[in-house]
Design goal:
It is built from 14 helices and 26 strands. The chain is an alpha/beta fold and about 425 residues long. Bound molecules: uridine-diphosphate-2(N-acetylglucosaminyl) butyric acid (EPU). Uridine-diphosphate-2(N-acetylglucosaminyl) butyric acid (EPU) binds next to α1, α5, α6, α10 and α12.
Length: about 425
């Protein structure tokens, strides 16, 4: 096993490059299997465990896949199975995209229920509602989702909740449905637009991604294409918050500043300086950042995936901050770990009240999930003394080269093996 050992208290200065977006890549790789002709060449793929997991899964289904140096080459003409049942499938949330992709391609899918971060109940009723509306018969038995249809027929689908996963999944299935599918009350996250752009590059006809209504005119087949994944909004936000927390001056490169506006706005409200410049955002911290209130919301609101790193910053900001986590009911597992380091936080259901303290102190803590892991790394960077973060396999699922990127900015983080 490995842990991160962080010698805290060093300001962060300099610049780093942000990788391709995890939540776009883990949807685009399954989407590539819909192509029945040609090869997909996809750049800016982040080097993270979730990507390697999807790589193994689609290889197991018969695709030829090679991912090297952030580029993926996928030949899915050899795809020969609709049955996704490996251990990897159960490990990660995004394997639910195989249902939409396989249903689109073969009109049949059998996929083990996906795992992912323990951040609350993660139903897929809206995915199922969408597939059924397209004409599929869907069953969920013993942790296995089976979906099949003689043919998929376009229709109007109004989602009851705004769901990233359901929006993408139903979009995947509908690309090859007969006629027009209209999806209403959809998610608008940057990776929704990215997946739609990727599908359109393969020959799909999708309009409206990034707005509340997506219209998909079914086509007969998808073909290979060349594509580049957008930068990771959440990774960028994590480094921006770390810069503010450590009293630093950091430029994050290879970003789309528009995607970061809700995060930049909060940092500015707290007293940090945020300067946008083309594809970069520079964060200059101030000594006295003040606490703020945050409510997590679907895009363009403040992203739930940045809530945990942000809560670390609020621990050392002056005054009282209130976080309302409106997306996931159980996304405060990192709070107990922050308290071990001297933070003053009370959680009541979906509300966390944070009273700023002067400093955090190094401690042995745990990454309870992916973004909680990032929150603990930032806590270690701020803290006096040494912090050890265990269970870092969660962090490796979503943050490429985390210790290298922070060390390039002046941090002192070592990855250490232990048994
Ligand atoms: N929901 C339902 N029914 C559904 C689907 C969702 O009630 O059928 C509810 C969920 O319980 C939740 C809300 O709708 O309360 C939003 O869930 P959503 O479907 O948008 O989440 P997801 O697709 O499972 C993705 C990301 C998460 C991110 C959320 C919200 C991936 C692989 N995961 O999850 O990312 O928190 O969207 O933006 O894209 C992370 O990267 O750390 C992470 C957890």
């Amino acid at each position: 096993m490995e842990k991160l050992v962080i010698n805290g208290g060093k300001p962060l200065c300099g610049s780093i490059d942000i990788s391709g977006a995890k939540n776009a890549a883990v949807a685009i790789l399954p989407a590539a299997i819909i192509a029945s002709k040609g090869t997909c060449y996809i750049d800016n793929i982040p080097n993270i465990e979730d990507v390697h997991c999807i790589e193994r899964i689609i290889e197991n289904l018969g695709c030829k896949v090679s991912i090297k140096d952030n580029s993926a080459v996928i030949d899915s003409t050899t795809l020969n199975s609709y049955n996704a049942n490996s251990e990897d499938v159960k490990k990660m949330r995004a394997s639910y995209y195989l249902i939409g992709a396989l249903l689109g391609r073969f009109k049949k899918a059998r996929v083990e229920m996906p795992g992912g971060c323990p951040i609350g109940v993660r139903p897929i009723d809206q995915h199922i509602k969408g597939f059924e509306a397209l004409g599929a018969k869907v069953t969920l038995e013993d942790g296995v989702v089976t979906a099949e249809a003689d043919k998929l027929i376009g229709t109007n689908i109004f989602f009851d909740v705004v769901s990233v996963g359901a929006t993408i999944n139903v979009m995947l299935a509908a690309t090859l449905a007969e006629g027009i599918t209209t999806l209403e009350n959809v998610a608008k996250e940057p990776h929704i637009v990215d997946v739609a752009n990727f599908l359109n590059s393969m020959g799909a006809n999708i309009k409206g991604a990034g707005t509340d209504i997506i219209r998909i005119t079914g086509v007969e087949e998808l073909k290979g294409c060349s594509y580049s994944v957008i930068p990771d909004q959440i990774e960028a936000g994590t480094y921006m918050i770390a810069a503010a927390a450590c009293g630093g001056d950091v430029t994050v490169n290879n970003v789309i500043p528009k995607h970061l506006e809700s995060i930049s706005a909060k940092l500015i409200e707290m007293g940090a300086e945020v300067i946008e410049n083309g594809e970069s955002v520079r964060v200059i911290s101030s000594k006295n950042l003040k606490g703020v209130n945050i409510k997590t919301l679907p895009y363009p609101g403040f992203p739930t995936d940045v809530q945990q790193p942000m809560s670390t910053l609020l621990c050392i900001s002056t005054g009282t901050s209130i976080i309302n986590e409106s997306i996931w009911e159980s996304r405060f597992k990192h709070v107990d770990e922050l308290i071990k380091m001297g933070a003053c936080i009370k959680v009541d259901g979906r509300i966390a009240t944070i009273v700023g303290v002067d400093k955090l102190k190094g401690a042995k803590v745990e990454a309870t999930d992916l973004r909680a892991g990032a929150a603990m790394v930032i806590a270690g960077l701020i803290a006096e003394g040494v912090t050890e973060v265990i269970n870092i396999e969660h962090i490796d699922r979503g943050y490429p080269y985390i210790e290298n990127k922070f060390n390039k900015l002046g941090a002192d983080i070592k990855r250490v093996s232990y048994s």
